[in-house]
Backbone:
């Protein structure tokens, strides 16, 4: 629960009026909002929140983990032996793309949050 509160506090500007009222943020003046934001940033480290990074972010898990789409719009077909792993991945999370030793699936995709690795190959489109 704290994770979601911190994520919301870091994104005050994107909160709707209803959300600001529900959380009590609407009652704070500008100085109080700034003080709250500074206090949160000073005392807590964001974990599991997609940070600006050079690695792409998992955007979609498609067809039970058979395919995934990353934030750079690349599409990946996952080795069928690894779909039980990729099928459990949750967005958003950073994905590290690297080489694999498997010639059929020449890339490895590593989930930054869980450390789990799947073998994959890049594709142009998800088959119908």
Residues:
């Amino acid at each position: 629960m704290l994770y979601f509160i911190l994520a919301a506090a870091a994104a005050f500007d994107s909160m709707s009026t209803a959300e600001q009222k529900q959380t009590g943020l609407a009652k704070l003046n500008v100085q109080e909002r700034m003080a709250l934001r500074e206090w949160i940033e000073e005392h807590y480290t964001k974990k599991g929140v997609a940070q600006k990074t050079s690695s792409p972010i998992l955007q979609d898990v498609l067809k039970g983990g058979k395919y995934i789409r990353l934030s750079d719009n690349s599409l990946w077909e996952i080795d069928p032996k690894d779909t039980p792993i990729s099928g459990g991945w949750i967005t958003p999370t950073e994905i590290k793309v690297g080489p694999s030793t498997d010639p059929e699936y020449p890339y490895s995709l590593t989930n930054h949050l869980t450390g789990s690795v799947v073998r994959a190959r890049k594709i142009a489109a998800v088959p119908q």
User: Anything to note?
Assistant: Residues 1-11 have pLDDT under 50 and may be disordered. The first strand starts at residue 58 and ends at 62. The helical segments are 2-9, 17-23, 30-43, 83-86.
